[in-house]
């Protein structure tokens, strides 16, 4: 059985740290906490779980802090978490089994990372991360902001174990400051840094400037296709907010330069045509989304609902607009199979059943009524 060091960097995390550690402390063999300057009870809470608590002078460099935490690990594998991450019970059990059965020939275990959730607790957005890595490989973190673990070689093991991110607080101002002071001011705004700085601008509502940087990034070399695909979707988001629907659609279609179609892009393209009233074309894209499988080693952010209920909801709307109520009803039923308690879908069900019953009583006569969806 492998042994695991959990390595975390923290600062003023008293609100969430116990929640995180409660979900994983009994699954790991060592907990290393690196504090970067807490002024609250973070270190006091950490001390309830481990005596391996270290200080690191904050230098606006997340990679440096994470690399320091990794240097303190002593077990055969290293796991990393943020303080607002946790493992739910089903994932705790999967992790427990993984620890007992993992072949030590594997150098990195890739896990799901769930980033957003619906009201029922189902994940709606997520990605994958190299979450558990062999210490002897000496993998390093790169980049002071939006850091990533550089796992460019070795044997990867893909699992469906999920770490769930329950974010507390907004770090946009901090991220923007670090970018401007360490990246922009030092003339390092290129490649991956260019992409992530554009993301910060877009998230801050600075769509014009963000769109220019996305275009600049997309015109450069393709080191990591996932980032280029994400840049296409973010550029489309900018054009949507700038009221430029044609350029929005062009940006989404550009993503097909980097990989085969994916369900989330197909849904977004479908939205473009649906918004213009081109329902038959929108139907084509939504139905295409339903035929696609999630790529196995996709490491970028995915809109998970585009592989489950979302295309069915939009197909219900589009078919209803075209007067094809039976097809609209069937897709609403499919959506309900994922979200059985959803109030809007249940309302659609009642309206469609009434409309179909009325249509049957009238012998199929149509009367220019507003579609029920």
Describe the structure.
The protein contains 14 helices and 11 strands. The chain is of the alpha/beta class and about 375 residues long. It folds into 3 domains: about 5-165, Spore Coat Polysaccharide Biosynthesis Protein SpsA, Chain A (Alpha-Beta Complex), CATH 3.90.550.10; about 170-260, Tetratricopeptide repeat domain (Serine Threonine Protein Phosphatase 5, Tetratricopeptide repeat); about 260-373, Tetratricopeptide repeat domain (Serine Threonine Protein Phosphatase 5, Tetratricopeptide repeat), CATH 1.25.40.10. The strands form 2 sheets. Strands 1, 2, 3, 4, 5, 6, 7, 10 and 11 form a 9-stranded mixed β-sheet that branches. A two-stranded antiparallel sheet has the order 8-9.
Question: Tags for this entry?
Answer:
9-stranded mixed beta sheet, Serine Threonine Protein Phosphatase 5, Tetratricopeptide repeat, two-stranded antiparallel ribbon, Spore Coat Polysaccharide Biosynthesis Protein SpsA, Chain A, alpha/beta, 3 domains, 11 strands, 14 helices
Summarize the structure.
Residues 5-136 form the Glycosyltransferase 2-like domain. Its EC number is 2.4.-.-. The protein contains 14 helices and eleven strands.
């Amino acid at each position: 059985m492998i042994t695991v060091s959990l390595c975390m960097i923290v600062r003023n995390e008293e609100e969430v740290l116990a929640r995180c550690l409660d979900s994983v402390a009994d699954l790991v063999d060592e907990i290393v906490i690196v504090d970067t300057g807490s002024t609250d009870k973070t270190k006091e809470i950490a001390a309830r779980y481990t005596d391996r608590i270290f200080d690191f002078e904050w230098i606006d460099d997340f990679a440096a802090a994470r690399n320091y935490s990794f240097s303190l690990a002593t077990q055969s594998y290293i796991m990393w978490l943020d303080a607002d991450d946790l493992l739910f019970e089903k994932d705790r059990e999967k992790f427990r089994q993984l620890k007992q059965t993992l072949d030590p020939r594997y150098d990195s275990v890739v896990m799901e990372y769930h980033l957003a959730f619906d009201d029922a607790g189902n994940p709606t957005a997520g990605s994958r991360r190299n979450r558990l890595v062999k210490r002897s490989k000496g993998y390093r973190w790169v980049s002071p902001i939006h850091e990533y673990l550089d796992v460019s070689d070795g044997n990867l093991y893909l699992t469906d174990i999920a770490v769930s991110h329950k974010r507390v607080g907004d770090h946009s101002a901090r991220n923007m400051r670090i970018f401007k002071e360490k990246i922009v001011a030092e003339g390092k705004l290129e490649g991956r840094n260019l992409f992530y700085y554009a993301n910060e601008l877009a998230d801050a509502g600075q769509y014009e400037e963000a769109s220019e940087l996305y275009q600049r990034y997309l015109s450069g070399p393709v080191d990591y296709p996932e980032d280029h695909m994400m840049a296409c979707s973010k550029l489309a988001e900018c054009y949507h907010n700038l009221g430029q629907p044609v350029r929005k659609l062009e940006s989404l279609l550009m993503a097909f330069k980097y990989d085969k179609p994916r369900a989330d892009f197909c849904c977004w393209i479908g939205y473009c045509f649906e918004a213009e009233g081109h329902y038959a074309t929108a139907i084509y894209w939504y139905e295409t989304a339903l035929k696609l499988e999630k790529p196995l080693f996709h490491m970028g952010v995915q809109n998970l609902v585009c592989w489950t209920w979302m295309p069915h909801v939009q197909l219900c709307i589009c078919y209803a607009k075209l007067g094809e109520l039976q097809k609209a009803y069937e897709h609403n039923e499919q959506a309900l199979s994922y979200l059985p308690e959803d109030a809007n879908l249940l309302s659609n069900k009642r309206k469609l059943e009434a409309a179909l019953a009325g249509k049957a009583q009238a012998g199929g006569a149509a009367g220019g009524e507003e579609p029920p969806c």
